Amino acid sequence: MKRYKAGIISLGCSKNLVDSELILGCLKDAGFEITADQQQADVIVVNTCGFITPAKEESINAILEAARDKKEGALLVVSGCLSQRYPQELKESIPEVDLFWGVGRHRELVDSICAKLGMPCGCVYSGKRVLSTPKYSAYLRIADGCDNRCAYCAIPLIRGGRKSVPMEKLVSEAETLAASGVKELTLIAQDTSAYGKELYGEPKLAELLQELCQIDGIHWLRVLYAYPNTVTEKLVDTMLSHKKIVPYIDMPIQHIDPTMLERMNRHGSAEHIRHITRYIREASSDFILRTTVMLGFPGETEAQFRLLYDFLQDEPFDRVGAFTFCPEDNTPAANMPDQVDEAVANARLDAIMRSQQQISLKLNYKRIGREYEVLVEKITKEGCFGRSYAEAPDVDGVIKLENVPECVKEGDFVKARITQASAYDLKGEYVQ
After folding, report:
1. pTM of the predicted model as reported, rounded to 2 decimal places
2. For 8-28, how does the pLDDT look when each residue is reduced to its tens digit (9 = 90+)?
């Protein structure tokens, strides 16, 4: 019997990447050979993103490119957020696709693929992922969907309300990942800090972190996508009380003006954002704070923008991601009055990013002369590159290391002293 080859094109965020890894795991269980060579694949799955307009455009372009470049007779499958959100429109506009699928139900997806190829369906699926990240680092998705219903966000329309994974299941998955060689585990969800609220009656991220700390082999635990109103003093204290939990949190605030937060339907308050930011800074000067802000939301005045600008100056974050408002189908914000002119929004975005570049540079300069544990990620002719606890995978800068002995391998932890700094990347010399 012919053994078919399957490959995947994964788009969008790390949460979608976990879906891609689960699909690959099901394909492998069903007997497919996994390949990264699209020209060799008998099945190509494009796992799409449908969050904002640029992501949708990227997904559509990827589908069209896959349809053009696939080998003759190959099956083209489209899954993920975009096809969950616009199933009929995609079927009508891209007839080259053989199968459209939404989000989740990965086993049923692979059964459908097998049926189209005339393969036996309903195999025993292990539920294991095929990691697409380096073998020493992986994402642990602790929940899917979201209950926050921010006025601009389509995620609840696509993925529904928050569905937290039971703690014992997450611990078991983390143990399996650690046994396979994973040393860095990055916790992700649409709203990580609200983890477990619908299961246990209150957020349980702190308790989950404490459980994960007990797993042998896990060296770093990192938290991304924390919603400010559920980032509490208890959570911060827990993160600082365990060596394995890196003092780093990604906490998108979106804005600091109370009226803007209310119009955005952001839960919590500007006062809490200010309080928890200061609490973190006072608790540890080594704590790395990352955030995301939105410019040009409907009704944003120059004074409200200036309030945000000044806040980021007065309470500097180590990392800031910024983007302009983009109206999304069927979201309340899409039809709000007082839409901000695109040129104005882009000017505000540019001002924020120019300011943050100087802030990041200043903060990175303070790291010169300090020693850090560095996870070696890449060794090439151009040099040796890695990350400290202060750099999250895929989103932050890197540290270029000098004088690294040949015995050091990718995935090793080494000690390095920072010698040079730019706004994003650093240079360091090997210490041991």
Report:
1. 0.92
2. 999 888 888 999 999 999 999
- pLDDT confidence bin for 1, thresholds 50/70/90: low
Report how far apart, in Å, the C-alpha atoms of 190 and of each of 197, 220, 365, 424 are: 13, 21, 32, 25
State the average pLDDT over residues 75-97. 89
For residue 176, what are its two tokens? 């399996």
Share of the chain residues as helix, strand and coil, in percent rounded to the nearest 5: 40, 20, 40
- For residue 398, give every residue at least 6 positions away whose Cβ sits within 8 Å of its Cβ, in sequence order, or none: 377, 385, 386, 387, 391, 425, 426
In this structure, which amino acid lies at residue 272? H
pLDDT digits (tens, 9 = 90+) for 221-262: 999 999 999 999 999 999 999 999 999 999 999 999 999 999
Q: For residue 346, which of 391, 401, 390, 294 has the smallest C-alpha distance? A: 294
**Bigger pLDDT: 352 vs 128:** 352
Q: Rounded to 10 degrees, what is the CA torsion of 380, 384, 389, 391?
A: -60
The whole-angstrom distance between residue 181's C-alpha and the CA centroid of its chain comes to 21
Give the residue from 352, 381, 372, 380 showing the smallest Cα distance to 421. 372
Radius of gyration of the chain (CA): 22
Query: Do the Cβ atoms of 70 and 44 come closer than 8 Å?
Result: yes
User: What is the C-alpha separation between 282 and 285, in angstroms, rounded?
Assistant: 7
Per-residue model confidence as pLDDT tens digits over 189-211: 999 999 999 999 999 999 999 99
Q: How many CA atoms lie within 13 A of 138 on its CB side?
A: 28
CA distance 206 to 231: 10
Q: Which residues of 231-264 are buried (b: 16+ CB within 10 A; e: fewer)?
A: bbeebbebbeeeeebbbbbbbbbbbbbeebbebb
Angle at 327 between CA 325 and CA 329, to 5 degrees: 150
Of 172, 253, 252, nearest to 215 (Cα)? 172
For 149-161, b/e burial (b = at least 16 CB within 10 A) is: ebbbbbbbbbbee
| Measured CA distances, 166 to 144, 187, 205 (Å) | 12, 14, 11
Q: What residue has token string 């692979």?
A: 110
